[in-house]
Amino acid sequence: MQPFRHHVILCTQQKPENVQCCSAGGSLATESALNASLERHGLSDDVLISTTGCLGTCENGPTMIVYPEGTWYGKVTADEVDEIVVSHLKDGHPVERLARKDEAEVRAESLDHRRKRRGKLAAQDKLGIVPEGAGITETIRSFMASRALLTALELDLFTAVGVGGTAEEMATRLHTGPRATEMLLHALAAMKLLEKHGDEFRNTPNAARFLAASSPDNARPALLHQADLWKSWSTLTDAVRADARVRNDVSHRDAESVRAFIAAMDRNARERAAQVVAAAGADFRRMLDLGGGSAAYSIAFAKAQPELTSHILDQADVVPLTREYIESAGLSARITARVGDMLRDDFGSGYDLVMLSAIAHMFSRAQNKALLGRIAQALAPGGKLILQDFILDPEKTSPLFAALFALNMLVNTEAGGTYSEEEYTEWMKEAGFRTVQRVRLPGPANLMIGEKR
Ligand SMILES: C[S@@+](CC[C@H](N)C(=O)[O-])C[C@H]1O[C@@H](n2cnc3c(N)ncnc32)[C@H](O)[C@@H]1O
Question: Hey, whose CA ends up nearest to atom 15 of ligand 1?
Fold first, then answer.
């Protein structure tokens, strides 16, 4: 079977720093150039590209193999890709200049690499050294890059870099120390978020687009929420010992971190809203959006269903922001937001849709059971509850993100956690929902949809 005219295998294996490999040789740039070239020449649908792990020809990487011919190309830089696309993939003539000719040599190289690797692993094992790829050292060290980027965001460094400048100029713009600023700039350049030309630093295209204030796609306000979470996560050891949150300042959030948090919620919700509306699948008129945040779901339902009005209930420091989002969507006449506590305040009745998105994880089992009971009472017969959250498998050991998010709730809330489909189903049935169905959407969050008797 040959569903594609060509199948291209490209090694993008990443190895520890200073180890020769295809990605260190630029195979990610080769991959981008290959995609762009195929697009330019109208071949995207004729060629399947698969990126792969180590092929054992690291010293001659980036390695690219073209099937069905089985042509092995070595040292394929981004500049050379176009020639391969035109001559080989379009016109059917392999590029002799770049193709490896000696089959026995390629085979010996690959087998030799495998032997050395196995030997190295065996030696490490004998010495009792934590092996590469076990994920232990890598996981522990990964906080360094995370912290460097969070600090850059807190300083608004990418905005300061703007059109570029030296480390000294940047320190002046940021009111920071010149020695430390230079170190941070170098680390960010190593992380491919900045480029260094001579003494000058410039934003990479991604940093300029997503991390600088001059860009309409600036994600900094939303990403700053993670800098706030860093502070809570650093209390995790104490929280595990105490069996509860130990950070006391979480409930007294400053205005900037509330704005950052709601902006983070909004980016996420906007991306998912269309799929949630499609999964809800009915003609709704009266919606209650509990803890509606940026109103993203109310706005999406209101846009999809012209008769719908929505009531949002949220906390006092969020509601002014909720209203800003509603106003900029031009929906103030159909979506209202009021201050309230969903654990205590009356919801009213007769709703045909209740949205409970990214809420249940903030609360304990008992709080969720009581809340679901009150939601069921607020719904008209046949009305629907859409609960969106990170749902654990029955064993609670996966998915990874949902399991880690439970810890996020441990350090940030009084009694929150993440729960399984079985738990939600039991609570919703007890609350008076006739049918309860899990809907899987792409991404870490899923829906539990309940319909009232
Ligand atoms: C994680 S955000 C989710 C926002 C929104 N539903 C979404 O999915 O984008 C949680 C929201 O619930 C609000 N909230 C937390 N506790 C609340 C309570 N007891 N009563 C009302 N709102 C609350 C927060 O202010 C925040 O806006």
Answer: 291
The type of residue at 337 is A
Which range has the worst mean pLDDT, 229-243, 256-270, 381-395?
Answer: 256-270
Mutate which of 268, 359, 368 to test ligand 1's pocket (most atoms within 8 Å of Cβ)? Answer: 359
Domain limits for position 15: 6-101
Q: Kindly tell me if the per-residue pLDDT of 16 is higher than 90.
A: no
- Which residues fall within 8 angstroms of residue 161, CB to CB, at 6 or more apart? 170, 194, 201, 202, 203, 207, 212
Same domain for 333 and 299: yes
Q: What percent of the chain has pLDDT over 90?
A: 89
Q: Is 77 helix (H, G, I), strand (E, B) or coil?
A: coil
CA distances from 360 to 107, 235, 276, 325, 430 (A): 56, 23, 17, 23, 16
At 308, list the tokens. Answer: 């719908």
284 and 420 inside one domain: yes
Pocket test for ligand 1, best of 289, 297, 315 (most atoms within 8 A of CB): 315
- Least confident segment among 256-265, 293-302, 393-402: 256-265
Yes or no: say if 84 and 76 are a contact pair by the CB < 8 Å rule. yes
Residues 171 and 126 in one domain: no
- Kindly state whether residues 401 and 341 are assigned to the same domain: yes
Spacing, Cα 314 to ligand 1 middle (Å)? 6
Quick: pLDDT tens for 122-171.
Answer: 998 999 998 877 889 989 999 999 999 999 999 999 999 998 999 999 99
* Residue 246 covered by a domain: no
CA 360 to ligand 1 centroid distance, Å: 10
